[in-house]
Please model this.
Amino acid sequence: MKIISTVALKPEHRTTILNAAPGANLADRQCRTAEEVNEFVGAGCDVMLTFRVPQDIATRARGLRWIQLLSAGADHVPGEPLKNSAISVTTASGIHATPIAEYTIGSMLAYAHRIHLAIRAQVRREWMRSGAFMAGVDDIRGQTLGIIGYGSIGRETARLAAAFGMKVLALKRDPLDHVDPGWCPAGLGDPEGKIPARYFGPDDREAILRESDHVSVTLPLTDHTRNFIGEREFAAMKPGAYLVNIGRGAVIDERAMAAALTAKEIGGAGLDVFEHEPLEASSPLWDLENVILTPHISGANRGYMDKACDLFAENLKRFAENRPLLNLIDPKLGY
Model:
């Protein structure tokens, strides 16, 4: 078996991979463009570990049977590799669950305790201790969190939210199917789907938004989820509700969101992803006091490749034994 990694691997990562596939030929190189990927895979391979997938990878990499993505989403993958029935494509869903769930809860706590306003006051050297400021501080305990997209990240967010004493509601494509078949390290997430007090389907999104004090959006970007939350959905939200988006920017109508935030029709938003990245300097989101904004970093952590290689190693064993792969993308769904 020939394995190509288009990211440079540390010795410990090579060891993890080769222990899972004894005798495999493993080559790795840092490829920063699709052209570099094409050049590297020109001699062919069976398996590819990568962030980037060129449109013509099926013809470039002779013998390629499986692509393991290093990202949780697959919206950046061209249509042809996904539609090629000879190539399986799996995501790294699950490896981001801990850092992104912690980021989400952290953003909610920062907003509830007005830390974002205190930091702005610190920059101005202003001692912010007014009655109005302190009267706006909330506990998240006892509040309701609506999770839009109940995958690995949403489930770990639910576990942490439940520990904080929040009521959890969940929206997923099939609200009757509660079990998570994806990769999930022991002790994390909600594999059996037991935490939510109630499940909602895609057509019920206004109902879940009406009940939620906080909303976490963890949707992948597909044809079905683009602009999933727009003007109508913002109108359904509670006036003081706080929304966190760590999925993809285009699942939310950004103009409708900016309008709702400017008019204070909703309380605030924690945004790590945007319709266009980097976010344009002209965007009104930069200047809104009720927005906590970060540059698509919620999944970043020192152990990223450790987790990714653990998942890849498990899938390598399954691949060698002809067992079903974890996080296999359904081309019709796009995730």
Q: What stands out?
A: The chain has two domains: 2-95+301-320, 97-293. The chain has a mean pLDDT of 96.
